[in-house]
Every structure is written in structure tokens, then in C-alpha cells.
Specification:
Blueprint: H1 2-8, H2 10-21, H3 30-39, H4 46-59, E1 63-66, E2 72-75, H5 82-94, H6 100-111, H7 116-119, H8 139-152, E3 156-163, E4 169-171, E5 178-188, E6 191-198, E7 203-208, E8 212-217, H9 225-228, H10 233-239, E9 247-256, H11 260-267, E10 274-275, E11 280-289, H12 291-299, E12 304-308, H13 310-325
Antiparallel strand pairs: 1-2, 3-4, 3-5, 3-8, 5-6, 6-7, 9-11, 9-12, 10-11
């Protein structure tokens, strides 16, 4: 009975072997196939292998046979090509919001999508300067739970923490739960953020997903749709520097021409650039005026100058004065 059952598994072992052992550079010949099946207690003739390969082709597997060396069968194409898997591995490994442990688990699963030989090329290390991985292991599941709440049109409640000087997680609001209606998950500044309508303040706010703990989905329907229905996630992230809150204002800024790429990287290719005759250009952008915005401006040094509105110019001047006081 066991032998007969093993015979039924023959075609599954064949496709497993093709997936794990073969690619364009590595094939399996008839002798290797018969030896593998024998190890699993399966007896087979060459003709039956030919028939099985043809059946798998008709089902949709791209099984090819190479007559030149190395001769044998191999899987010609897969759902993911090797360059695509390399790109995914690099993204997982360098992403700040994915923990080291979860990165390793995901990469192992990605390796299973190609042959054993090509999988060795995925065991690569991407180095990103000063890249610190998140320490909150639950972020992976937080994202999934938030997606579920958005899809099912439910609010969520959670606790929110911050790190104290002792490197300990400290809950905000003495551990009181936040109740929000989630609307948009946004990846900005290498962090995952939730853009949501906060029920207590009736305002649209954003939260670092990795700092959210004990997320629970509430049974009622979401609120605040009218506040977020016209919100563009990309534009929201671009104008909210470091995702710090601040009054959104239209600001006119002058940059030296060499910073055109910097401006396009920050605000997108649709940003309006007006070249001037003195080697500068002007642009008007919507930003959340905050210290991170001023920090970005000051980081460009004398190559940038805020022109309007006057109130923002004065705020920036005050920001610089406060910095100067600290170094007197």
C-alpha cells in the first residue's frame, strides 16, 4: 500500500526537483531523476518520465530540455525572475521598519521561489549608512491588522509608546488607548505611518506604526471620511517633513540652480520651477511649517532662501536665532 501511495507522489517529486535543482545553468538528466525517485521508494521507467514531463508542460510549467552540456531538463521560467528576487531581497534587508528577525524570515521565503543554486545569489548583504532596524517585532502584524480594518471599514484602538532616556518603552497618555479611524498607510522617510481620523479631537493625524501596540479592531464604522477623501497620500508625505505636524502653508522659496534635483526628489516632478536670470529658480510648495522643515532648509545652507509668506520668514529667523543661542 505504501509503495502504491508513493507512486502517486511521483509527479509531485518531479516538479519539486525541477523547482529546487534546476535553472538555465543547471539541469537534471534522466539518471538523476530516476535515482531521486528511487530514494523516495518510487520505481519508474524512462517512458513514464517523458509522459509526466509532457503532462506538466500541458498544465503550464515551462519545462525545457537542453541537448548541449549540461544536458537535461530544467525549469525555463518562474513567477519571479532572479533580478526581481534580488531587488526584493535588497528592499527587505534595507527597510528600516522591518526587524532583523523578520527580514531574515522573509528572505528565506524569497529564496524558496528560485532554485537552490540561484538562491545562493540572494544571500547578499545590503549596507545602508546609519540604518537602524526597528525593534518592534509586531509592526509586521500591525500593518496587516490596519489593512484589515481599512478594508472592513472599522476604527481601531491602540496604545502608543515612545522611548525614554533609559531606552525603555514608555506608553503615552499613561497608557490610555487611542481611538482612530484608519484611512491611509503611508511609507515616508523610511517609516510606516498611519494617517487616520482621531475621534477625540476630530482631526486628521498620523502615527508611526512601529510605535503602536495592542491594536484592536472596533465593531462600529469608520468616521472622518469627509476629512480625508481628498487627501493625496504622496503629497501629504512630501509636505509633512519627517511626518511632523505643523500648519500647512504655501511657501515661496528661491534655490540655486544646482538644487533642482533636490527639489524634484522632495516634491515630485510636477513641482513648478521658475528659472531666474541670476542662477536661481523660484518655486511655490505646500508644506507643514515645522522645525524639521526649517532643518531641511538650513541643511542646504546659503543655496536656499524662503521668500514668502513673511510670517514663515520670521519663524525661520527665530528658529536660527534659537540655534545660535545654544552655541554662544
Amino acid at each position: 500500500m505504501a509503495k502504491a501511495f508513493n507512486q502517486k507522489l511521483k509527479i509531485l517529486y518531479l516538479i519539486q526537483m525541477l523547482y529546487q535543482k534546476t535553472d538555465e545553468e543547471h539541469t537534471v538528466n534522466m539518471q538523476q531523476i530516476l535515482h531521486m525517485l528511487e530514494q523516495h521508494g518510487i520505481s519508474a521507467e524512462r517512458k513514464s518520465i517523458y509522459d509526466d514531463m509532457e503532462m506538466l508542460r500541458q498544465f503550464g510549467f515551462d519545462i525545457l530540455f537542453r541537448k548541449s552540456q549540461p544536458t537535461g531538463y530544467y525549469l525555463g521560467s518562474r513567477n519571479f525572475e532572479l533580478p526581481e528576487l534580488k531587488l526584493l531581497v535588497d528592499a527587505v534587508q534595507s527597510s528600516r521598519f522591518i526587524t532583523t528577525k523578520k527580514s531574515e524570515e522573509l528572505i528565506q521565503k524569497l529564496e524558496g521561489l528560485t532554485s537552490e543554486n540561484e538562491a545562493r545569489q540572494l544571500q547578499r548583504q545590503v549596507y545602508v549608512n546609519n540604518r537602524i532596524k526597528t525593534m518592534n517585532e509586531s509592526i509586521y502584524y500591525n500593518v496587516d491588522k490596519i489593512h484589515s480594518a481599512i478594508t472592513e471599514n472599522h476604527p481601531i484602538s491602540f496604545q502608543y509608546f515612545e522611548w525614554n532616556v533609559n531606552k525603555e518603552m514608555q506608553l503615552r497618555k499613561s497608557g490610555a488607548r487611542y481611538l482612530v479611524s484608519p484611512w491611509i498607510l503611508c511609507w515616508a522617510d523610511d517609516n510606516y505611518y498611519l494617517v487616520a481620523f482621531e475621534h477625540s479631537t476630530e482631526k486628521v493625524k498620523h502615527y508611526r506604526v512601529e510605535k503602536m501596540v495592542d491594536i484592536k479592531i472596533s465593531p462600529e464604522s469608520r468616521m472622518g471620511q469627509e476629512k480625508v477623501e481628498d487627501l493625496d497620500a504622496g503629497k501629504y508625505a512630501n509636505k509633512t517633513f519627517g511626518m511632523f505636524g505643523g500648519k500647512v502653508q504655501t511657501v515661496e522659496i528661491a534655490f540655486k540652480d544646482k538644487y533642482a534635483g533636490v527639489v524634484i526628489d522632495r516634491f515630485g516632478k510636477d513641482v513648478v520651477i521658475k528659472p531666474q536670470k541670476d542662477g536661481t529658480f523660484k518655486t511655490r510648495v505646500e508644506v507643514a511649517v515645522s522645525e524639521p522643515f526649517f532643518g531641511w532648509i538650513s541643511g542646504l545652507g546659503s543655496g536656499v532662501r524662503i521668500l514668502k509668506p513673511k510670517v514663515v520668514v520670521e519663524e525661520y529667523r527665530d528658529f536660527l536665532k534659537k540655534l545660535m543661542k545654544q552655541y554662544k
